[in-house]
Structures are given as C-alpha cells and as structure tokens.
Specification:
Length: about 220
C-alpha cells in the first residue's frame, strides 16, 4: 500500500505511522525524522533545514522534494510506504504525483487525522522525543516514561523539540492551515481521502485507521 498521512502537528501522525507501518509491513517515511537525522549527523542538508525547522516554518520545496524522492528510491519502499509529514503543500503533492506517475504507480489512500486545536496544544506541550529514534515518543501526562527523561524502549535521552515550544506551535498551526490543509481538498478531488478522529487511546485510533484504510485502495 502507498499511503499519505496528514493532520495538524500533535495529531499523533508519528505515533500512528509507526504502528500502521508495522501492521502493514511497509516503511514509515517521515520527512521530519529525515531532517532531524541530517541535523544530528551535521550534513549540508541538515544545515539547510535547521533554521526553518527551529522556527516552525516549512523547509523549502527544492530541498524537501529531493530528499523525499531519494528516500522513496530505497529498495524497501518498492513494496509500499507510509508517508508522514510529506507532502505538506500543494507543490509537494504535485511533485509526488508526478514522481509516482513516472514509476507507473499511484497512491492508495490519504489518511486525515482530525483533532481539535486545544487538544493539539496540550499534546505538543507535554511531548518528549527520544534522541536515538524519533518514533519513540512520550508524553509527560498521557504516556510517561518509566524513568524521567529516559526512553523506555532503548534507554535514549528524551528531549523537547525546539519547535514544540508554545510560540513555535502557533506558527506550525498557521503553516498547517495555510499550506497543508489545501492538499486535503487536492486529494479529495482524486477521491483518496479518509478522515478519522485522532482522539482517544492510541490503540483505538490505530484500529480506526486500519479500518478506514481497508475502505481505500
Ligand atoms: P514533523 O516532524 O513532521 O513535525 O516536521 C518537523 C519540521 O520539519 C516541520 O515543522 C518543517 O520545518 C520540517 N518539515 C518536515 N516535513 C516537511 C515537508 N514536507 N516540507 C517542508 N518542511 C518539512
């Protein structure tokens, strides 16, 4: 299956993507995680992306689209993929369509995670991420690690992303409404969108998502 996940920051895209990708045996491809890995490794790409990310703005399309396409070229993506955080605007969505068309492929579905804005702010403020693996996500209130500041899964250090600070969250929400929401309409025209509520316990949302995806593609 080839799936795109959309939803505002804090909707739980990363958390759900990790479970869904495992259930569906396809790679979870997060452009945010790819950028953060590049920053950790000190690459040129990471240097280009860092200031935009810290400010909560989108990294320019020239950089982002090339990075996403390189990742999609990896052999593990031949059997399908779950894209998390890409595309994030209409030019990126068109670039992805053009890429897939060149390969004779198409998307099977776009899963839209819906969550009210006040919940988004609460979720992001308490979020803590593992330095070793961005898919290891905790929350000071909803999913406390067994030991403060330490990842339950791998022992890595937990930290708060710079762009999870409250003023940056505002910017990211504005960017989401202005740039990313329009791609939902773009994909609706292709009849690809399934919308589910992202509220409730994580396993319930995963189950809802799996059922919704069965209705697509
Ligand atoms: P995320 O981990 O998906 O919340 O992404 C964190 C940050 O990485 C975003 O706020 C952007 O600065 C950058 N980023 C991730 N994906 C994209 C994308 N598709 N286009 C532009 N910037 C992106």
């Amino acid at each position: 299956m080839r799936i795109v996940l959309v939803g505002p920051p804090g909707a739980g895209k990363g958390t759900q993507a990790a479970y869904l990708a495992k259930n569906l045996s396809i790679p979870h491809i997060s452009t945010g995680d790819l950028f953060r890995a590049n920053i950790n490794q000190g690459t040129d790409l990471g240097k280009q992306a860092k200031a935009y990310m810290d400010a909560g703005e989108l990294v320019p399309d020239e950089v982002t689209i090339g990075m996403a396409e390189d990742r999609l070229e990896q052999p593990d993506a031949a059997k399908g993929f779950l894209l998390d955080g890409f595309p994030r605007n209409e030019p990126q969505a068109r670039a992805l369509d053009a890429y897939l068309e060149r390969k004779g492929l198409r998307l099977d579905g776009v899963l839209d995670l819906e969550v009210p804005e006040d919940e988004v702010v609460k979720r992001i403020a308490g979020r803590r991420i593992c330095r070793n693996d961005g898919a290891h996500v905790f929350h000071l209130e909803y999913k406390r690690p067994k030991v403060d500041g330490v990842c339950d899964e791998c022992g890595g250090e937990l930290y708060q992303r710079a762009d999870d600070a409250e003023d940056k969250v505002r910017t990211r929400l504005d960017v989401y409404h202005r740039e990313t929401e329009p791609i939902i309409d773009y994909y609706k025209q292709q009849d690809l969108v399934v919308t589910i509520s992202a509220l409730g316990p994580v396993p319930e949302v995963t189950q809802r998502a799996m059922e919704a995806l069965r209705r697509t593609g």
